[in-house]
Amino acid sequence: MTETGFEKTPARDRRRFPGISSRAYEHPADRSALVALRKLSGFDTVFKAMSGLLPERSLRLLFLSDSVRVGDTQFPHLYAMLRDACYILDLEKVPQMYVQQDPKPNAMCIGLDEPIIVVTTALVELLDEEEMRAVVGHEVGHALSGHSVYRTVLLFLTNLALKVAWIPLGNVAIMAIVTALREWFRKSELSADRAGLLVGQDVQASMRGLMKIAGGNHLHEMNVDAFLAQAEEYESSGDLRDSVLKILNMLPRTHPFTTVRAAELKKWSESRDFQRIMDGHYPRRDEDKDTSVTDSFRQSAAHYADSVRTSKDPLMKLVGDIAGGAGDLGGKLRDKFTGTGSGSAGGGGAEAKGTDTGGATGGTTEQG
CA–CA separation, 258 vs 63, rounded Å? Predict the structure, then answer.
């Protein structure tokens, strides 16, 4: 296989997706943002003009000089996985890939003109072949979606925020952009997880990989079902105070929590959308130019509305109640934060009963 062509098929029989568009696996929130940016006239030109300000050349030289480039003679098993992933997702040009010495398991896809994939030694040592295949597919998914461009900007702005932190108000504007980019990037990680599943086509391997990233190389001490149960408990337990703490814990992160990622991926693997892709019915790249921005935003809005309606998180349930026409907002907020209900046996009791029924209904919708 050459750098721009394919001479070998994957090592084992897996379905290939010729001409697949990244829209096939992108999370609705991720997809709508990317479609809007791609449709924006002149955006690519303006964005590329910023490349002189971004340290892309420096990053490429850094990895070339101080990491190991994956190829036929260095980490050949990773190179085979990389080529296989590009073959399955029909990415014509194989990105350069580097292994970097780092005790923390991590992987990333960066670059403005051409994507570069970097994996750490800790990640290579942690995961088995099928788990690693899902990770490589994850990063190739980032490359196919064009995420590497925005990831590079995020890295640059994060470093810049640290350098200008001493300037009064200088850090505020930059951190606002960084926060917005992080929110988008967390959604893009869910998209790339789906791409990893399309490449590996082994949902258990994807689950194990996420579980190992969370708990280390002690697979005999861990259980995928119990790990997924943690995600259920994380979403549904606690009160409004816990909901606020969840938001605060998430803000500085670029990645969603691993239990949440596992639960999201498991849900998608059981969906009709995933099955349609596996059956060969998916959006094609040659149709991207005809994509409607309005339709993408409508899908994103529908996703968020469904998330609010089916969520078991106390804050999301409250939002759903309010959106559904439930009154007494002040009383609901007070009761949620204090953990108390209405003291009267009349209307208050009926309201509490109605809230319980709404919660049960929400749980039923979640199951569906």
Answer: 27
Question: CA dihedral in degrees (357, 362, 367, 368; nearest 10)?
Answer: 110
Contact yes or no for 137/199 (Cβ under 8 A): yes
For the chain, helix, strand, coil in percent to 5 are 65, 5, 30
The Cα 191–Cα 199 span in angstroms is 13
Q: How far is CA 74 from CA 67, 96, 128, 266, in A?
A: 11, 12, 18, 34
Over the stretch 101-134, which tens digit does the pLDDT of each residue have? 999 999 999 887 789 999 999 999 999 999 999 9
SS3 256: coil
Chain centre to alpha carbon of residue 322: 29
* Residues facing 118 on adjacent strands: 98, 108
DSSP, residue by residue, 87-115: HHTT-SSPPEEEEE--SS--EEEE-SSS-
pTM of the model: 0.70
Q: Are strands 68-69 and 96-100 parallel, antiparallel or unpaired?
A: antiparallel
In 3D, which of 260, 295, 210, 264 has the Cα closest to residue 27?
264
User: At residue 356, does pLDDT exceed 50?
Assistant: no
DSSP 368: -
How many whole angstroms separate alpha carbon 321 and alpha carbon 348?
Answer: 16
Cα angle 202-120-153, degrees, rounded to a multiple of 5: 95
pLDDT confidence of 76, banded at 50, 70, 90? very high
Contact 351, 317 (CB under 8 A): no
* Element counts in the chain: helices (H) and strands (E): 17, 4
Higher pLDDT residue, 298 or 261? 261
Q: Cα 1 vs. chain centroid, distance in angstroms?
A: 30
Among the listed residues 82, 56, 57, the one whose alpha carbon sits nearest the alpha carbon of residue 69 = 82
15: left (phi over 0), alpha (psi -120 to 50) or beta: beta
In Å, how far from its chain's centre is CA 15? 23
> H/E element holding 118?
strand 116-120
Residue 251 has pLDDT above 90, yes or no: no
